[in-house]
Design a protein that fits this description.
Largest sheet: 3 strands, mixed
Cofactor: Zn(2+)
Structural class: alpha+beta
Strand order of the largest sheet: 4-3-5
Number of strands: 5
Distance between the termini: 24 Å
Family: Belongs to the Fur family.
Radius of gyration: 17 Å
CATH topology of the largest domain: Arc Repressor Mutant, subunit A
CATH class of the largest domain: Mainly Alpha
Bound molecules: zinc ion
GO molecular function: DNA-binding transcription factor activity; transcription cis-regulatory region binding; zinc ion binding
Keywords: DNA-binding, Metal-binding, Repressor, Transcription, Transcription regulation, Zinc
Number of domains: 2
Number of helices: 5
Protein name: Fur family peroxide stress response transcriptional regulator
Order of helices and strands: HHHHEEEEHE
Strand content: 5-15%
Helix content: 40-55%
Length: 141
């Protein structure tokens, strides 16, 4: 995935966030890794170029990015938090053998779910979005 620093800087500006080297390098790492990395994956990725970045700083930046809607959190069965640079609604195929999370985009499914819950009308609950984690195993695993 080609990542332009200029695009990243623009994203921060649009959200009214200060552009700091730490924020830029962390968001860049998430886009580059492009596979729902854990905080550890991110730290490992940026250590070479930023050997002095503190683990606490990384977690703080990740929180800020989530709060501002620049990334999403993805929780797995193993309870390890992972991060997603794609903020548009999409589902995940989660491989229970290799731990890979692949994005799954399916508009028909989105419409189906939306209509289903429109009819169901769960009392006292307003649905914001529906994200499925579809568990299974890839053939190659
Ligand atoms: Zn995703």
């Amino acid at each position: 995935m080609k990542v332009l620093i200029e695009d990243i800087r623009n994203k921060f500006s649009q959200k009214g966030l200060k552009i700091t080297p730490q924020r830029v390098v962390i968001l860049e790492a998430i886009y580059k890794l492009n596979n729902h990395p854990t905080a550890d994956n991110i730290i490992e990725n940026i250590r070479e170029s930023h050997p002095n970045i503190a683990t606490g700083t990384v977690y703080k930046v990740l929180e800020t990015l989530v709060e501002n809607g620049l990334i999403r959190k993805v929780k797995t069965d193993k309870d390890i938090m992972r991060y997603d640079g794609i903020i548009e609604i999409h589902h995940h195929l989660y491989c229970s053998k290799c731990d890979l999370i692949e994005d799954y985009i399916d508009e028909d499914l989105d419409n189906l779910l939306k209509n289903h819950f429109k009819d169901k009308n769960i009392k006292g609950f307003k649905i914001e979005d529906i994200v499925l984690q579809i568990r299974g195993a890839f053939d190659k695993c």
